[in-house]
């Protein structure tokens, strides 16, 4: 009897444990947000979420209101959809929400990088020093040189000005931004032709990784794709290895500062290589796709293109090529381009769709702007998806799906910063870079880089869509939540150097 009692007891414990792990036993407690576990144990709503996060969240929002908790692959996510209530989550004065913990798990999985204690601080202090303010001066000069090299070739002859070149707009933008960005940050050797070839090859591999990335993060790769990811990771570790750095000069101070820190901490060279890959990913995965959307919107809206060109002529004078080799350009002009600034802000509003995630440390109360209070449960994740809850809110941005190049301009031509929701001024009226502790530290460099590229394209080149009636392609639904979105198909365009004096 006693024996069977023990066996039954043990069985009960095991089953309860399993049920618990499968999420069957979780119940909504008083004051917690609506709980939607989905119909499949453990997986919950994972399939619908991964297939199209945007549509899924729209549906949940309509069903449950501004705050709800959903089960996704054994983890509970509480989505907060009311931007007027973001404040306490982003400021998190009580330190009950943790960004670093989740990020560390992710980079270990995706890049094999074991984060050290002070990494987060180190990355942000390196970025404050070298990706912002005065520290950016070196880099934005380097970026201009790199763009000249990539677009005009080492001798300036690679583009014959008299003829049109045809390409996919997405490929073209991503390719140019990747190569220029990679070379500017990770350095040159003595042989520029060789550098360009290597950057081109790296771009091809980067795109392979990029395509697998969303399903890799969601653990949805088949065995062959899994091996392919492993191969790509090793290839990047080798190409970006710190051993190779010895042959290079002009490695950005941003990268060398961070590597020096890791060296001094005794981090193994192989781990530093992984760190480099992580930084390549963070720095090159969004600027190309964003520039694509920017140029596409300009090509689809001739009045916007016209306005950007007029502004460029005003601040730059007539476009000239210096010795046919490099763009003649004062980077400081980027300070005086409110029209282009508005175009970029509008592009990011329509194109950038990151998810912000924070792990809940201790059970605590989230107070909404409405006064409503919700209990957040320890171990759950609080999630924001500002693309849906902010960028597409017709109250904040009337006709939210339409590109309006002057949406971020005041009538007197200055930058518009006043936006309202329900009559209240709203602080976070777009959030392409994330916000709070996890805000993108590269946002100033990214903006400069993309502005430079767009300015060069519209001032030095004639451009047109191969089929002017081609519509703006829909977003690839797999990429919702991963930074800048990508189009579900390519758009053909052609370009040629404008005849210059
Ligand atoms: C259009 C271009 C870009 C967009 C839309 C973008 C967006 C973002 C977002 C949303 C995050 C935060 C992710 C989170 O909350 O977990 C992030 C993080 C980061 N970004 Fe960017 N980014 C861009 C370009 C760049 C560039 C050019 C660099 C560097 C040169 C860069 C460096 C980083 C780094 C290092 C992080 C991680 C910061 C951390 O660990 O706290 N980004 N980016
Ligand atoms: C580039 O360098 C300048 C220094 O004059 C710096 O102030 C600025 O933020 C950087 N970016 C642009 C676009 O000028
Ligand atoms: C331009 O207009 C905005 C609001 O419409 C105002 O806040 C700003 O001070 C004005 N700037 C100038 C230079 O007049």
UniProtKB/TrEMBL annotation:
What does UniProt give as the signal peptide span? none
For this UniProt entry, the molecular function terms from Gene Ontology, in alphabetical order, are: heme binding; iron ion binding; monooxygenase activity; oxidoreductase activity, acting on paired donors, with incorporation or reduction of molecular oxygen
Note the topology in the membrane: Single-pass membrane protein
Would you tell me the protein name for this molecule? Cytochrome P450 family 8 subfamily B member 1
Query: In Gene Ontology terms, what is a biological process of this protein?
Result: lipid metabolic process
On whether Transmembrane is a keyword of this UniProt record, the answer is yes
What does this protein need as cofactor? Answer: heme
- Entry GO CC: endoplasmic reticulum membrane
Q: Where in the cell is it found?
A: Endoplasmic reticulum membrane
UniProt: substrate binding residues: 109, 286
Q: Where primarily located?
A: endoplasmic reticulum
User: Which InterPro entries is this protein grouped with?
Assistant: Cyt_P450 (IPR001128), Cyt_P450_CYP7A1-type (IPR024204), Cyt_P450_E_grp-IV (IPR002403), Cyt_P450_sf (IPR036396), Cytochrome_CYP8B1 (IPR030686)
**What domain of life does the native source organism fall in?**
Eukaryota
Which residues of the sequence carry a binding annotation for heme? 440
Q: From which organism does this entry originate?
A: Canis lupus familiaris
Transmembrane ranges, per UniProt, are: 6-25
Q: Which UniProt keywords apply?
A: Endoplasmic reticulum, Heme, Iron, Lipid biosynthesis, Lipid metabolism, Membrane, Metal-binding, Transmembrane, Transmembrane helix
Q: Does the keyword Endoplasmic reticulum apply?
A: yes
